[in-house]
Design a protein that fits this description.
Blueprint: E1 12-20, E2 41-45, H1 59-67, E3 70-75, H2 95-107, E4 111-112, E5 115-116, E6 119-122, E7 132-140, E8 143-146, E9 149-160, E10 164-168, E11 172-176, E12 183-189, H3 196-212, E13 223-230, E14 237-242, H4 245-270, E15 283-285, H5 296-303, E16 307-313, H6 330-339, E17 345-348, H7 359-369, E18 376-382, H8 384-403, E19 408-412, E20 418-423, E21 430-432, E22 439-440, H9 443-451, H10 457-468, H11 472-480, H12 484-490, H13 498-514, H14 524-535, H15 541-552, H16 559-566, H17 573-585, H18 588-594, H19 599-610, H20 616-634
Parallel strand pairs: 3-11, 14-19
Antiparallel strand pairs: 1-12, 1-13, 2-3, 4-7, 5-22, 6-7, 6-21, 7-9, 8-9, 9-12, 10-11, 13-14, 15-16, 16-18, 17-18, 19-20
Helix pairs in contact: 2-9, 3-4, 6-8, 10-11, 11-13, 13-15, 14-15, 15-16, 17-19, 17-20, 19-20
């Protein structure tokens, strides 16, 4: 297995950044853009693909239509109305969202159009109740300055965010509508020849530029990157759902390896004498033949009244498992493909005998197919209604494998790999929005945007350091975090130490998250209230982490409950002195051995006992005094 040389394969990467805008309402209605998890009603829909104005079907829409899933939508009156339910035409465009889009376009030196034409982008995966997403091109051209390199901007669009996926079952999908319609800006950058680490820097620079406006939302899910990846002699692969910079780097590395691996597979396939697979001659029904098979998957399929079929592929032995790079195989590609039809029962000849399919059944299949040792086959089990689509997809994928890398849309996983999602959409998916007239952009609006271009990230960072006397590293961390506005709000209280607040927001919460605790359980109100109690002397600094730990672990649901449950009310001076005196009396041996250095281990014992009921600073001063008194009296 060879090692990939990423700088020798002609890697090109284009980023599409999708960023939620911080507005008081949604793009085409007056509903709040606040996300909630409380739902008071639900309804269902079935979406179907329709022809474009030119009478053509979009390939991505056809693929989704094949799944025939029922969509169930959950709503609440605070964040969705009849517009989100597609029962009422859209209202006027949100003026604030328009102005923010113009500001960002001006910051990127992009050419703003004097008229904006809303379009409908066909989406029938259920994430839009109407079957389309409203989008409009605001500007074209411009550039992003990333470490002195100018990265071209292709286009900047203003559009609606999609509904939030709650669950995806075999025949149904659940969505909540509180996110549907939130204003979103899409910035498409020109593809560049750059390494994964360089692309990470470009994405970081773009994220920082957006944050300098202080008009975009923060946190996981508020900014997403679609990544277009290609190498020499390959199609463009679009990867959706990249939310974090570490994930972005891994996705590009994996996709470069996958695409080059597929090119090497295609080169090997071209040397074989391969014939085109015929649906009439090369597909056989083996349902009866497999009735006594011990495979649990096969038996489950038979129990569900599914059919079991086999595809014969001449001269294909060894090609499903051929792996030019680790974990890159054609067999894996086909397995991912059919999974989207709700079919889990697929096996190829290179991995058999296995999974309960023994030699006797393999011999019977080979005899039926008239296969020799150079031929391969694929077994697939599924409902008759889905099986035909799946068979067509497998045959098509094998034909594509001969050519190299198919242009398709894939989904990023948390581990940085990608899985098949659907075919690439075509031009047929976009058509004019008939419910909204063209939107005029005046010269005054453009002038206002250009005069209010925010300071650069470097200047904003220096302001942050100067205003709050922050250490440079903490200033950078708090600016890049989702907590900048909360940090500034907390620090309005002059009793708060900005460096301590920044440290808690950027380090303590992150460390708790790394321990597997849930950040989304800790609300901004909880954080603010904790620092409020600290400034009022109701709790100590050490209590903050304990409160956050209680809430993020799900043990408590509020700051007050955390304080009550862990008895964190600040100790009085007398109570603290009594505890320290008792612990010193129990640990004279340590003091006798270590002298004044004993303060370290003894302070650890005290802090463990009082668990956040007094500040470390106060404990330290008290212990120093008591230990010195003991040592002096001993002399």
């Amino acid at each position: 297995m060879s090692e990939l040389k990423i700088d020798e394969i002609g890697l090109k990467v284009g980023l599409e950044i999708h960023q939620q805008l911080s507005t008081n309402k949604k793009l085409f209605c007056n509903c709040s853009s606040m996300e909630t998890n409380e739902f008071t009603a639900k309804f269902s829909r079935k979406l179907r693909a329709s022809k474009s104005e030119l009478g053509e079907y979009d390939p991505a829409a056809i693929f989704e239509n094949m799944k025939a899933k029922k969509m169930i939508y959950y709503t609440n009156p605070v964040s969705c109305c009849l517009v989100e339910q597609d029962e009422e035409p859209p209202h006027d465009l949100d003026h604030d969202a328009k102005n923010i889009a113009l500001l960002i376009a001006s910051t990127l030196k992009s050419n703003i159009f004097s008229e904006i034409y809303p379009m409908r982008k066909m989406v029938i995966d259920g994430s839009n109740t109407s079957g389309f997403q409203r989008t409009m091109i605001v500007s074209q051209g411009g550039y992003l300055n990333a470490d002195g390199q100018k990265i071209g901007v292709q286009s900047i669009c203003l559009e609606e965010d999609a509904a939030k996926l709650l669950a995806d079952r075999e025949t149904e999908r659940d969505y909540s509508l509180e996110r549907l319609g939130i204003p979103l800006i899409e910035i498409a950058l020109e593809p560049v020849s750059a390494s994964p680490s360089e692309m990470r820097k470009i994405a970081l620079t773009m994220g920082r530029l957006l944050r300098t406006t202080k008009m975009v939302t923060r946190g996981i899910g508020s900014i997403r990157q679609d990544v277009n990846v290609s190498i020499s002699d390959s199609g463009i692969v679009e990867v959706k759902g990249v939310q974090q910079l570490d994930q972005l780097e891994k996705v590009i590395e994996y996709e470069a390896k996958r695409q080059h691996g597929l090119l090497l597979i295609s080169q090997k396939l071209k040397k074989l004498k391969l014939e085109k697979i015929s649906k009439l001659k090369d597909i056989f029904d083996i349902t009866e033949l497999m009735k006594n098979c011990q495979s649990r998957i096969i038996q489950k399929s038979l129990k569900d009244k599914s059919l079991i079929k086999v595809i014969k592929i001449k001269n294909f032995a060894g090609m499903f498992s051929y792996s030019p790079y680790e974990d890159i195989r054609l067999g894996k590609e086909i397995g991912q493909l059919v999974r989207f039809f709700g079919i889990g029962g697929v096996f190829h000849s290179d991995e058999l005998p296995n999974y309960g399919i023994d030699d006797s059944h393999i011999e019977m299949i080979k005899k039926m197919l008239d296969n020799d040792e150079n031929d391969g086959f694929i077994i697939i089990a599924g409902e008759n209604s889905k099986l035909d689509f799946a068979l067509d997809s497998i045959i098509n994928r094998i034909e594509q494998a001969k050519q190299g890398v198919p242009a398709e849309t894939r989904l990023a996983t948390q581990t940085g790999q990608t899985i098949y999602l659907r075919p690439r959409p075509g031009a047929s998916r976009m058509y004019p929005e008939t419910d909204i007239p063209p939107i005029i952009v005046t010269d005054n609006e453009i002038d206002f945007a250009r005069k209010n271009i925010p300071k650069s990230w470097d200047e904003s960072l220096l302001d942050l350091q100067k205003n709050y006397h922050l250490k440079p590293q903490l200033a950078e961390q708090i600016f890049d975090s989702e907590y900048l506005e909360l940090f500034e709000k907390i620090c309005m209280n002059k009793n708060s130490s900005p460096n301590f607040v920044a440290s808690i927001l950027c380090s303590t919460i992150t460390n708790l998250e790394r321990r597997g605790l849930e950040t989304n359980l800790l609300k901004s109100e909880d954080i603010f209230k904790s620092f409020e109690f600290l400034s009022q002397g109701k709790i100590s600094k050490e209590s903050i982490e304990i409160i956050f730990e209680q809430i993020m672990s799900g043990k408590t649901q509020s700051v007050e409950e955390s304080i009550q449950k862990t008895s964190m009310i600040t100790l009085s001076e007398d109570e603290l002195e009594r505890i320290c005196y008792t612990i010193i009396n129990n640990n004279f041996a340590i003091i006798d051995e270590q002298g004044t250095r004993a303060i370290g281990p003894i302070m650890g014992i005290v802090m463990k006992n009082i668990r956040g009921k007094a500040s470390g600073e106060k404990v330290n001063m008290l212990l120093q005094k008591m230990i010195k008194e003991y040592l002096n009296n001993k002399k």
